[in-house]
Amino acid sequence: MVAHKPFPFPLPTGEGNVFLWTLRACVARGGLLTSFHTNKDNPMANNKRIVIIGGGFSGLFTALDLSGAGDVTLVSTEDHFLFTPMLYEYLSGEVEEWHIAPNHKELLDDSVNFIHDEVVSVDLDARTVSLKNRNKEKISYDVLVLGLGGVSNFAGVEGAAEHSIPFRKIADADKLRSRMVEALDHVPPDLPPQDTQRALTFAVVGAGASGVELATKMADLLRDAFKRRALRGEPRVLVIEMGDRVVPGMGGEIREIVEAALLSSHVEVHTLTRVVRVEEKSLTIEHDGKLTQIGTAAVAWTGGVRVSPLVETLELEKTDRGLIVVRPTLQVTNHDNVFALGDIAYFTDATPTLAGTAQLALQQAGLLAKNIEAFLSGQELQTKHFAELGEAVSLGTERAAVLAGGKVFGGALARQARFALYTSRLPTWQHRLRVGASWFFEGTTPRPLLPLGARR
């Protein structure tokens, strides 16, 4: 199995060379995420049944690395994988759905059995998995991988689950973009600036990386729409954060670039502020003990995640936050044949800023695949410390911030470098090559928020 490397080539300094580097990265990393195993030293391992629950970064990349290592079954509630770090670019139209959400069957070869269904229960003693749409059939396993992602955490805020839009799936991005277009379509060009801003106020809850990426994308798209539609005034985009700073898990240098981008995109940042209630066309916030109701066209929720409901039903050792406690080998306690990784696993030997990120899940998948093979072969399992490979934050439709090799840079070049970096982290070399070629030849220009029914 090839070792994970953040940058296989020196990052080019010329903006025009970045996409050439992207295509080179696609080919150079061709074997990284599609390792085909034959297990010649232990042919009996090929008869072992490995069931993987979850088709996100944790589950899919584990399945890809285990292809040919046994009787592998991947179960997912979605028929496609989603490269979530670029869901913001999908919202803005910089990328297409097929770029970041390829079908699972397109990515997996015939050695992996894919089941599009929901796991409703797991019997750890009987070693079986029950599915929602196959209630009379249970899947038996010798090794179980829990690769479920988290779900939106509305923290008990009144009306949040009913009236806010989470930002975790393609459908969420489609809904938010439609809401933005509909709100714009209801504003006539001669409306006074203050009334226009009132009708086009959007709020994003949470100022982590997800919140600032989403807010800057929305702000840039809306400001572009104002110019195209000759609207008076400007839109209002707010970020609501309970903490005292934006992107709290990032370093000071990259935070400075993020704060400058928020200012440039005219995004209002409200720190030390709590959301009390969300209604259909408004939200109520609390700051310094004072309640304020703000009219909104939409509220997007990036304010945190919690573990999958299925995980809550499993009788496994967990933290106070409900995360499954795993050993350094990624095995759960008391069940040597059960492994967990990604958002639902409490893994201590990793840089703290990696917790809950796709990058950590991707790195863990490589170790997990090796350890499952070792477990089936009766060999010693390995451990590994996971470190930050670099950060890349999208900041609107024209710029980004990238931390690589201990250096931080921002602007248009960082946006291009982010595309190059994420190309190398897409699943399978075939998909990376197709996407990289698409971005190189067709470009990544944002898609404007045109009136419904209008052509670009």
What secondary-structure arrangement, pairings included, does this model have?
Elements lengths: L17 H11 L20 E5 L3 H10 L4 E6 L10 H6 L4 H4 L3 H4 L4 E5 L2 E5 L4 E4 L2 E7 L2 E4 L4 E2 L7 H4 L1 E2 L3 H16 L7 H7 L1 E5 L3 H21 L6 E5 L11 H13 L2 E4 L3 E6 L2 E6 L2 E6 L2 E4 L3 E2 L2 H5 L10 E2 L5 E2 L2 E6 L4 E2 L11 H20 L13 E4 L5 E5 L2 E5 H12 L5 H14 L14
Parallel strand pairs: 1-2, 1-7, 2-3, 7-20, 9-16, 10-11, 10-16, 11-12, 18-21
Antiparallel strand pairs: 4-5, 5-6, 8-17, 13-14, 14-15, 19-20, 22-23, 23-24
Protein model, in words:
The protein is α/β, with parallel strands linked by helices. The protein has 2 domains: 1-32 and 155-303 and 390-456, 3-Layer(bba) Sandwich (FAD/NAD(P)-binding domain), CATH 3.50.50.100; 33-77 and 117-150 and 307-389, FAD/NAD(P)-binding domain (3-Layer(bba) Sandwich). The chain contains 14 helices and 24 strands. It has helices at residues 18-28, 57-66, 87-92, 97-100, 104-107, 160-163, 170-185, 193-199, 209-229, 252-264, 309-313, 358-377, 412-423, 429-442; strands at residues 49-53, 71-76, 112-116, 119-123, 128-131, 134-140, 143-146, 151-152, 165-166, 201-205, 236-240, 267-270, 274-279, 282-287, 290-295, 298-301, 305-306, 324-325, 331-332, 335-340, 345-346, 391-394, 400-404, 407-411. The chain has a 6-stranded mixed β-sheet with strand order 3-2-1-7-20-19, with helices on one face. A 5-stranded parallel β-sheet has the order 9-16-10-11-12. It has a 3-stranded antiparallel β-sheet with strand order 4-5-6, with no helix packed on it. Helix 1 (18-28) runs antiparallel to helix 14 (429-442) and helix 2 (57-66) runs parallel beside helix 12. It starts with 17 loop residues before the first helix and ends in a 14-residue tail after the last helix.
